[in-house]
Write a structure and sequence with these properties.
CATH class of the largest domain: Alpha Beta
Radius of gyration: 26 Å
Structural class: alpha/beta
Number of helices: 21
Helix content: 25-40%
Bound molecules: iron/sulfur cluster
CATH architecture of the largest domain: Alpha-Beta Barrel
């Protein structure tokens, strides 16, 4: 089973033991100077131990302060070379190959420190840019070409197995390649031959400085998905030229930052969504081709290899969700795999909030260095109230440490509100996490009491050593005139199909739940208007997910009122107030409320009264997203 995934293959002179690649992903855990930290090394080492064939690091800047994020790896002096040697040593010891990506972020360079490096082929910013970049002179271009080679030479000294030139995603090299960003009229602009010149000069410089036997890969955005952006026709030519120039592999991605949902695909995009792009590249080159993009299961990865659409499978977020994915596949332990659900809350979402990269389904990720195995010193009886994802996570971690855990769930199933969150279109993959938790609980022999609500009396009688409260939250209806009318329905009742909406629906609340419910209703044929009190909808939603929701709102012709308050709900009207002006929405047959939820936690004060140690986690403490709830569940189990 999955034989192809485990066939070794060479990239140039580098033999990779299987086809499973961790592509470059920012962790933001380097030191401010660009050195590898214990946190960063432990993160990569963990994956190497999990069986990944090739790990590609986040980019090394060709000079200080040329990153998209304020922190990046650097290797421009001997001290830095030494710090990265420890990284390569530990990854090699654990059995994987490690390549380093090299980049200059061009017009996407972070400008918090200085805008000196905000440079581009042409002096124009992208839609998402804040400031216009400075146009590079030809002398400056030549200098930057040399910096790529210098960086590659130092990476070789640090004992990396290969380098990857980052020519994708709207950073400097791809800005030169693309008509979207390159408006020059000299030898570096205009026709494709000219736009490729910068990249080909870099390849030549790198190869001259690392020697012909050192593997060099190039990451390309095969299609940029912006008007005038790089097309497949152009990328086929670029790939062929790179092969002729001695490049050893093409790593295929797509998109640029402005359309970043094509780079880090949220759950709304299909699995294997961009595989056909790699297949096109594979048709024109004889060197290995790496693909990526929502490939999160072994069967999907194997099918891509079988179909000959790529030679290696980049599974970045799958590796965050479960660093042991390769070993588990190899040993046939598919049920043990914790799948990436495409939520983007922890990984790119974390980075965009200026935090380290985390993973919603794997709270240990990026914390490997500070969360060693932690068997309990004193075994306790731990009771957990609530079998939602936070409670289940606490139960798994506590039981793994040796505690005797009893999980009380008032309904007949585990998952809590997560089960409802999985109901909107394109969110079904959330359920794989509940499935994984159930499997782990079973393996660990956790005593699960279904249809049982934990009470103070039960605690008084059973004397557990500790209680974790994870009783979740419940939605509320704001006290608005008319909100008690029968056609006013909670979003949850729509999603669970307990109640049916009519043809003309007003959704109160433009957060994630409101917008997802609006999309659900549109799919079932309703005309939908969203009313949001805040100045914008989807506040707090990750960029990639938000881009997809905005597209759906546009495609479905939904009306949106922002900065608008619902004042009154009539029999077939909804009166809203926007900028002091009243607007009456007419012919409304259903009002759907998605105005937030409140914690449910009646047990804590009762147990505190009788002196039982209690920890409150997840939504029962404060209503937030899944990332926070599951992390708290993990830590409660880890610390108890
Ligand atoms: Fe996947 Fe979400 Fe984890 Fe990111 S945070 S790796 S999208 S499960």
């Amino acid at each position: 089973m999955y034989d192809k995934l485990f066939e070794p293959m060479k990239i140039g002179t580098m033999e990779v033991k299987n086809r499973l690649v961790v592509p470059a992903m920012s962790t933001l855990t380097a030191t401010p100077e660009g050195a590898s930290t214990e946190q960063l090394i432990a993160y990569h080492e963990r994956k190497a131990k999990g069986g990944w064939g090739l790990i590609i690091t986040e980019y090394f800047g060709v000079a200080p302060n040329v990153g998209f994020f304020p922190k990046m790896l650097g290797i421009w002096n001997d001290e830095l070379i030494e710090s990265h040697k420890e990284l390569t040593r530990r990854v090699h010891t654990a059995g994987a190959k490690i390549a380093a990506q090299i980049s200059h972020s061009g017009r996407e360079t972070f400008i918090g420190v200085s805008d000196e490096n905000l440079v581009a082929p042409s002096p124009y910013r992208d839609v998402s840019g804040e400031k216009n970049p400075r146009e590079l002179t030809v002398d400056e271009i030549k200098k930057i070409v040399g910096l790529y080679g210098d960086t590659a030479r130092n990476l070789k000294k640090a004992e990396f197995d290969a380098v990857e030139i980052y020519a994708a995603h709207g950073y400097l090299i791809s800005e030169f390649l693309s008509k979207y960003a390159n408006k020059r009229t000299d030898e570096y602009g205009g026709c494709l031959e000219n736009r490729m010149r910068f990249l080909l000069e870099i390849v030549a410089d790198v190869k001259a400085k690392v020697g012909k036997d050192f593997p060099v890969m190039v990451r390309l955005s095969t299609v940029e998905y912006v008007p005038g952006g790089l097309s497949m026709g152009e990328t086929r030519v670029i790939a062929k030229k790179l092969e002729e120039a001695g490049v050893d592999a093409i790593d295929c991605s797509q998109g640029i930052f402005t359309v970043s949902h094509n780079i880090v695909e949220p759950m709304m995009l299909d699995n294997c969504v961009f595989v056909d792009n790699s297949a096109e590249i594979k048709k024109v080159v004889n060197i290995p081709v790496i693909t990526a993009g929502r490939i999160n299961e072994a069967c999907l990865a194997e099918s891509v290899l079988e179909a000959g659409k790529a030679d290696f499978i980049g599974m970045g977020r799958a590796s965050l969700a479960d660093p042991d994915f390769p070993i588990k596949v190899k040993e046939g332990r598919l049920e043990d795999i914790r799948y990436c659900i495409g939520c983007v809350q922890g990984c790119i979402g974390g980075n965009m909030r200026g935090e380290n990269c985390h993973c919603l389904v794997n709270p240990e990720m990026d914390r490997e260095y500070e969360l060693p195995e932690n068997p309990a010193e004193t075994l306790k009886t731990v009771w957990i109230a609530g079998g939602g994802v936070a409670g289940c996570e606490a139960a798994i971690v506590a039981a793994n440490r040796g505690h005797h855990v009893v999980l009380f769930e008032k309904s007949d199933r585990l998952g809590g509100t997560w089960l409802i969150a999985a109901l909107p279109p394109h969110k079904t993959e959330l359920l794989t996490f509940v499935g994984w938790q159930k499997h782990e609980l079973k393996k660990l022999g956790v005593d699960i009491r279904y249809n049982t609500e934990l009470t103070k009396e039960m605690v008084q009688e059973g004397h557990p050593d500790a209680v974790i409260i994870a009783t979740g939250c419940k939605p509320f209806i704001p006290p608005i005139s008319g909100s008690d009318k029968p056609h006013v329905i909670q979003a949850n009742d729509i999603l669970t199909q307990k109640k049916k909406a009519g043809e003309n629906v007003v959704v109160m609340g433009g957060g994630s739940v409101g917008v997802e419910t609006a999309e659900f209703l549109s799919w079932y044929g309703s005309e939908v208007t969203i009313v949001e009190m805040l100045d914008d909808i989807l506040i707090g939603c990750e960029r990639e997910t938000m881009l997809m929701h905005r597209k759906a709102i546009k495609d479905e012709n939904m009306k949106v009122y922002k900065g608008a308050k619902v004042c009154e709900i009539g029999d077939d009207t909804v009166t809203i107030e926007k900028k002091g002006k009243k607007i009456v929405l007419e012919d409304v047959d259903t009002v759907v409320v998605a105005a937030g939820s409140k914690p449910v936690n009646t047990l804590e004060p009762e147990l505190s009264e009788i002196g039982v140690p209690v920890k409150v986690i997840g939504d029962s403490k404060k209503v937030r997203n899944g990332l926070a709830a599951i992390y708290e569940g993990y830590m409660a189990g880890y610390e108890i």
